[in-house]
Amino acid sequence: MSRFLAKLKAEAHAAGVSTRTFDEALAGFAPIARVIELDRAQPENRKSFAAYRETLLGASRISEGRTLFAEESHLLAQVSKAYGVPPQVIVALWGVETSYGALTGGFKVPQALATLAMDGRRPEFFRGELIKALRIIEDRHITASAMKGSWAGAMGQPQFMPSSFLTYAVDWNGDGRRDIWGTRADVFASAANYLAKSGWKAGEPWGIPVRLPQGMDASALCGLEKKLDMRYWKHLGLVPAGGGGFAGLPGEASLVMPDGADGDAFLVFNNYRVLMKWNRSTYFASAVGLLADSIAAR
Question: For the whole model, what pTM was predicted?
Answer without folding.
Answer: 0.94
